[in-house]
Specification:
Chains: A alpha/beta (325), B mainly alpha (501), C mainly alpha (192)
Shape of chain B: globular
Helix content of chain B: over 70%
Largest sheet of chain B: 2 strands, antiparallel
Structural class of chain B: mainly alpha
Distance between the termini of chain C: 48 Å
Distance between the termini of chain B: 64 Å
Strand content of chain B: under 5%
Helix content of chain C: over 70%
Largest interface: B-C, 82 and 72 residues
Number of helices of chain B: 23
Shape of chain C: flat
Oligomer: heterotrimer
Number of helices of chain C: 6
Strand order of the largest sheet of chain B: 1-2
Number of strands of chain C: 1
């Protein structure tokens, strides 16, 4: 009998202690935040995320959990966040390709512009056109000329349809009308391997991956995509940009962005945006980015949101051009 | 170069290196043992831990996780027939049979020893021949990959189960299922039937859990026996350890499987799953008593286990010498290397020789720790299998759910269950489901490598394959010859039977 | 896992064998023929100029072969049918009662998760499963069914950082959350 009473008392105490601290209005965030990555493990986003989440978790006061949702070329993860409870505890870490371009190539259940708001952009990566030492061309202009004279003979390797290395190539094709043999690879790694093995004549790559091979003299960078050179980079500051060389339409760079569902209340969105500003100033974060060799090019969420509609229509035109027949 | 080696040697004299390796191995084994949790996930999650310490501690830590992970997957494979990782599927043939006979501990120990041996030997071979492997990597392109996959399929075919026809049906079903989702070559979406959950294709983890775990659970439930281990077994013998002579009988298998795994590791895109299967089928073919395979033959454990661990060593080669990751695991390792300030690539030997050598030596030594850690962790698992089914099965169910939810959301649970129920029915009808999973896993690589080959060939395919890429041509010719030989042999061996089974 | 039975053990299974083989043959044929309709072209044309392979080719081949083999299997199953062992005393429902119940419970459990959240659904799911499998005595069942989901959730969500579904009812979700935080605090306190 005594034991029964004791048990009952203990259960009641436990129950009350569990229910008691339910505050009327929960502070944000009041539980772990899920950071969704719509891609598989091991890419550059994953690497960024692992470093960022630990620091950001401290800033926000709640742990940040990375959830990998690869699938559907990034659409599965994106849709997941679009549909998630807009209380600010689920956010997306993606790039402009998945945000605005790929949704226009498939049937998706969300509206890129209406269903998401930007929290911040942390940096962007400029791909480079690069070739190996035995190629029949040594500069970018030589490549374009050669491709024009030999349609369908040049193997151009990329990392996946509508990926970060594919889109600039497609922009180039649209602007110059050259015909090349587009060879798909499963990701940047195999694309690089094909280039080193001299199976591909030309490919795309990011600075970090290219560096050891350029230094060893195996690969030659031809042009940086975009309108500004990679300043301050000892190995690549002399590589001309596509804009300089006269190919203005070749402009796709991969911007790493954090997005939240559009329904998130304004005050919570502000907390998230402010947290990222604090992140940029954080010394551990700066050291981490330096270690992984990536720059920091912060842009506030509000400003990035202004750029999105423009990009969206740019991609619409590009897709229409490339998929018509 | 030699003094770089000596300098690297001094790294092994630090105690904390070993501590981190041990923690890594244990964490890897734990994660590997959970069906549905992949080593990749463990690496990704524990990566920040490795950031906080210096490279000589952080990187062996991560390497320990990969080694432990592959072995960990064999534990549920042996105990309950549910592979913890894709690489352990081939262990499910003989593992559960041994458990039912009360020889779970022997099986686990054989798996451990075979894994350690395969891993250690392939590490040594990789280090010794690193230059050779580096050149090999650049010679292997899509035609070679296609040819090797074809060869592997041919070698694996017909090795498991009795009914070849049903196995073939399962294989084509798996192949078809593997094509659901987005086509990598053109970006077209296929067979998704408007379901968003399928837009990325059927994810591998729910498929494996569905195909293996669900039928095992339902099958175990069929019999009214309260435990997995047959009641007729003498319980005092369940904890019996592997005897030396039993291990010695499998040494040749282990060596063969190590060779197989090492070769497959050098080819990007093929992977541990295929290595395990080829190891198993090679062991079965070479055995003097192939009929015992599938009923509890320790050789059937040694074969796949040595092969799938042997893949580890060579996959590091493109990573270290070219900075190119071969699969997800090495992709994370690359991130770790970069974050620690190492620069994998052609210059790495000159620039960071001592560190690199130190790393390679620790890789070899960690295998000894692997043995110790595995040994300690085996015992509780071997005894845990004796838990009553009424409690063990719900526990397996909840872990299976967690595994599926780890890289996916609730719709993946649905996929897992649907696949599972179908698999259960097929199993009852004596369909062998291992070909289904292999074909599923290989669907994308086959189509992909073939498409790429055609793109490179630009129309003149025969010329391209046999003249421009002779290695691929040799493999394909080898595959065709093998098929021819096997069917001829089969025709001569088969005696006419009154009724077709 | 495979036994060498010359024929299937019961008439019910033999019938199922025929049905499944027919289904395979039909499904394979249907998928193979309808494949072009199932392939939504989101892809670019550029790649297809040089390639003879379209996205339709391989799936069509796979399912087509499956259909052919399914047909052969159908013929075999039908021929084998008369030779099946006569029905034993049990009807197949009683024989497969356990697996059916467990399968139904697993499906129900999966449906409960997005509704009740991982821990609560786990409690219900585990409890019913254990009872269905023959576990007895609420003194053993309740603590296990209560603790196991919580422990699993804690280990995987807090230590391994895998996010698990929350309940859609705040009443259930909030205490679960508080409990997790409470456990985290104990854990980190002990770790020091």
């Amino acid at each position: 009998m005594k034991r029964r009473m004791f048990l009952l008392a203990a259960v009641t105490a436990l129950a009350t202690s569990l229910l008691a601290p339910l505050p009327a209005e929960a502070a944000f965030p009041d539980r772990p935040i899920t950071l969704v990555l719509p891609m598989g493990a091991g890419g550059s986003h994953d690497l960024h995320a692992r470093g960022i989440t630990s620091i950001l978790g401290d800033i926000l006061g709640q742990p940040m959990i990375v959830k990998l949702l690869p699938g559907g070329a990034g659409m599965q993860g994106t849709a997941f966040v679009a549909k998630a409870n807009p209380d600010g505890h689920t956010i997306l870490f993606t790039h402009n390709g998945f945000d605005l371009l790929v949704p226009q190539t498939q049937k998706v259940t969300f509206n890129s512009l209406k269903d998401f708001k930007s929290i911040a952009r942390i940096n962007y990566a400029q791909p480079m056109f690069i070739t190996h030492t035995d190629a029949p061309f040594k500069t970018f202009k030589e490549f374009v000329a050669y491709a024009k004279k030999n349609p369908g003979k040049v193997n151009l390797g990329h990392s996946g349809v509508w990926g970060a290395l594919y889109t600039p190539a497609v922009q180039l094709i649209k602007e110059t009308g050259i015909k090349v043999n587009m060879i798909p690879h499963r990701g940047g790694g195999p694309a690089l391997q094909a280039l080193l093995a001299k199976q591909d004549h030309i490919g795309g790559i990011f600075a970090t991956q290219a560096r050891p091979h350029v230094k060893a003299g195996k690969l030659i960078p031809l042009a940086v995509i975009g309108d500004t050179r990679i300043e301050g980079d000892p190995d690549f500051k002399n590589v001309p940009t596509t804009a300089e060389l006269g190919f203005k339409d070749v402009s796709f760079t991969m911007e790493r962005i954090f997005m939240a569902p559009a329904g998130v209340p304004a005050d919570r969105l502000k907390i998230l945006r402010d947290a990222f500003e604090k992140l940029m100033a954080n010394p551990s974060f700066k050291a981490f980015m330096k270690n992984i060799g990536e720059p920091v090019q912060f842009m506030k969420g509000e400003e990035y949101d202004k750029l999105r509609p423009g990009r969206h229509s740019e991609y619409t035109a590009l897709i229409k051009e490339m998929t018509k027949k | 170069m030699f003094d770089a080696f000596l300098q690297g040697f001094q790294f092994i004299l630090r105690v904390d290196t070993y501590l981190y390796i041990i923690i890594g191995l244990a964490a890897g084994m734990f994660v590997g043992a959970m069906p549905g949790l992949t080593t990749v996930l463990a690496l990704a999650v524990l990566l920040p831990v490795s950031f906080k310490v210096e490279p000589m501690l952080g990187i062996p830590f991560l390497i320990g996780i990969t080694k432990g992970g592959i072995f960990g997957g064999s534990i549920p494979a042996i105990l309950v027939g549910i592979p913890g990782t894709g690489a352990s599927i081939a262990t499910c043939f003989d593992g559960p049979a041994l458990t039912r006979k009360g020889q779970a501990r022997k099986a686990l120990e054989m798996a451990l020893y075979a894994s350690v041996a395969g891993d250690a030997l392939s590490d040594i071979i990789t280090i010794a021949l690193i230059g050779f492997f580096a050149t090999l990597v650049l010679l292997i392109g899509p035609p070679e990959v296609f040819a090797i996959i074809l060869l592997s399929l041919v070698l694996i075919a017909g090795v498991s189960g009795e009914s070849g026809l049903k196995g073939a049906i399962a294989a084509f079903l798996g192949l078809g299922l593997g094509f659901i989702g987005t086509d990598a070559t053109t970006g077209a979406t296929r067979m998704t039937f408007g379901l968003e959950a399928l837009s990325g294709g059927i994810p591998l983890i729910p498929l494996i859990i569905g195909v293996f775990a669900v039928p095992e659970i339902l099958g175990a439930v069929e019999s009214k026996a309260p435990r997995f281990v047959s009641e007729r077994v003498d319980f005092s013998r369940v904890g019996e350890r592997l005897r030396w002579h039993e291990f010695r009988a499998s040494i040749r298998t282990i060596l063969r499987s190590t060779a197989i795994g090492t070769w497959i590791g050098a080819v990007p895109g093929v992977g541990q799953v295929v290595a395990a299967f080829v190891g198993y089928s090679a062991a079965k073919r070479a055995s003097k008593h192939p009929e015992t395979f599938g009923k509890g033959d320790l050789d059937g454990i040694a074969g796949p286990e040595a092969a799938n661990n042997a893949v580890n060593g060579p996959t590091m080669v493109p990573l270290l010498t070219l900075g190119i990751p071969g699969d997800n695991t090495t992709a994370i390792m690359l991130g770790a290397f970069v974050a620690h300030g190492m620069r994998p690539g052609p210059q790495i030997f000159q620039e960071q020789g001592p560190l690199l050598y130190g790393l390679m030596i620790t890789m070899v030594l960690s295998n000894i720790l692997f043995l110790a850690v595995g040994y300690v962790l085996l015992k509780p698992f071997a005894y845990a299998i004796q838990m009553k089914k009424a409690y063990l099965i719900p526990l397996i169910v909840i872990l299976a759910f967690v595994g599926t939810l780890s890289t996916g959301d609730v719709s993946d649970l649905g996929i897992m269950i649907v696949v599972g129920l179908v698999a259960y029915i097929l199993r009852k009808l004596e369909f062998d489901l291992a070909p289904l999973v292999i074909a599923f896993v290989l669907a994308e690589p086959i189509e992909y490598s073939l498409s790429q080959t055609l793109l490179y060939a630009r129309g003149s395919i025969l010329h391209y394959v046999f003249v421009a890429r002779p290695i691929a041509g040799a493999f394909m010719a080898g595959a065709i010859l093998w098929i021819a030989w096997m069917s001829v042999r089969h025709r001569f061996k088969r005696t006419p039977q009154p009724t077709e089974p | 896992m495979e036994a060498e039975k010359p024929s299937l053990p019961s008439a019910a299974l033999a019938r199922l064998d025929v049905a499944v083989a027919a289904l395979i043959a039909l499904a394979g044929a249907a998928l193979s023929i309808a494949m072009p309709r199932l392939v939504l072209e989101g892809g670019i044309r550029e790649a297809q100029e040089f390639m003879r392979l379209t996205p339709v080719f391989f799936p069509r081949l796979a399912f087509g072969l499956m259909a052919v083999l399914g047909l052969i299997q159908l013929v075999r199953s039908v021929r084998r049918f008369p030779g099946a062992a006569p029905a034993t005393g049990e009807s197949w429902i009683t024989k497969y009662q356990n697996p059916l119940v467990v399968a139904a419970l697993i499906v129900a459990y999966a449906y409960l998760i997005p509704w009740l959240g991982f821990s609560a659904a786990g409690f219900a799911g585990l409890a019913f499963l254990i009872i269905a499998l023959g576990g007895r005595g609420w003194r053993e069942i309740l603590p296990f069914a209560l603790l196991a989901p919580l422990v699993v959730r804690f280990v995987f969500e807090r230590l391994l950082l895998i996010s698990l579904p929350r309940a859609s009812f705040e009443v259930i979700a909030a205490p679960e959350e508080v409990l997790m935080q409470f456990l985290s605090r104990i854990f980190f306190f002990l770790r020091i």
